[in-house]
Design a protein that fits this description.
Number of strands: 2
Strand order of the largest sheet: 1-2
Number of domains: 1
Helix content: over 70%
Shape: globular
Strand content: under 5%
Structural class: mainly alpha
Number of helices: 12
């Protein structure tokens, strides 16, 4: 019974309350610990030495975060089994961010609808790592939709997937630990997974671990997005599936294109293309064959598709856990 209600309750908590305050948020703690471990362990030297230092720093962060989640849930379960489930529910809820993602995207949409490019650039800058100063209204909307399409996997589906694996084994502490493991790896990839002089080797282990943990969820995302598009009046399910499959490898990341391309097809857009990171121009592959001029209304449709995808994925996990 607890397994069946776990995923709806997790999404309901996020929908009602959003992300916890920073002083309570595990992600803030992960970022603080990552900064400390980098300060302690980063060193100049050969690529092998930097890679080893990065492995040690990532291992430290993961060990502490996963260990704390496991201990918290195991201690709660020792008091009462229901308390163990509740502790796992809180841990997984804190790892999710669909409402925060929707709210950030909505700020971009509202600013564009009011022709406030300055506010729109500032809002989309909270979602993407690229330079936004030179983007026009269509470029801002396109960047926002790309972020929603990518983060539906990184910020929601992958965490639910790993939590579901623990629940299939009827082990709430394991569900919480696996969710925290994925979220920690995702945070480390965001902080260290940069291809610059400092992080090229130091952050490689974190980046590869994040790729591994998102590998299966990213491939599960494509059919879920296509099926969710069936329930979205402004989305096209067939185009989502066809475009997502055709462009699934058209990205330097092994996982990003599976969901981004599906969003592009569902919304009739072409995403990707050149972007500036600092002073460096990066030629991202194009995803899709639709319109290049994304509109504010497309952001609204992307948000709706994101929510339906999360609900459908949670429902599928609920069914799997029920029959395993």
């Amino acid at each position: 019974m607890y397994t069946l209600w776990f995923f709806p309750c997790v999404l309901l908590l996020d929908r009602l309350f959003g992300e916890p305050p920073c002083w309570l948020h595990p992600v803030c703690g992960m970022g603080w610990l990552a900064a400390k471990s980098e300060a302690w362990l980063w060193c100049e030297g050969s690529p092998r030495l930097q890679f080893a230092a990065g492995c040690a720093a990532a291992g430290l962060v993961l060990f502490v975060c996963v260990g704390l989640a496991w201990f918290f849930c195991a201690a709660a379960a020792a008091l009462h089994p229901v308390a163990g489930w509740g502790a796992a529910l809180l841990c997984v809820y804190c790892c999710l961010a669909p409402r925060a993602l929707a709210e950030h995207a909505l700020r971009v949409q509202v600013a564009l609808e009011h022709n406030n490019l300055s506010a729109a650039k500032q809002a989309v800058g909270m979602l993407v790592g690229r330079q936004t100063a030179e983007l026009d209204a269509h470029g801002i909307a396109r960047a926002c939709i790309e972020s929603v399409g990518e983060n539906v996997t990184d910020g929601v589906l992958a965490t639910l997937f790993w939590a579901g694996l623990g629940l299939c084994l009827n082990n709430p502490p394991l569900a919480a630990a696996l969710a925290i493991l994925h979220r920690s790896a995702n945070v480390l990839d965001a902080l260290w997974g940069k291809k610059n002089a400092r992080y090229c080797f130091f952050g490689r282990a974190a980046a590869r671990l994040d790729d591994v943990l998102a590998f299966v969820p990213a491939r599960c995302a494509l059919p879920c997005i296509a099926l969710a598009a069936c329930f979205s009046p402004q989305a096209h399910a067939g185009a989502a599936l066809a475009t997502g499959w055709h462009f699934r490898h058209a990205h330097e990341s092994p996982n990003s294109a599976w969901s981004e391309a599906a969003f592009a097809g569902a919304l009739g857009l072409q995403l990707g293309g050149a972007a500036y990171y600092g002073m460096q121009r990066v030629e991202h592959p194009l995803l899709g064959t639709g319109r290049t001029k994304a509109l504010p209304s497309d952001i609204q449709h992307a948000i709706a598709l994101m929510w339906r995808t999360c609900l459908l994925f949670a429902f599928c996990l609920m069914l799997v856990c029920a029959f395993v």
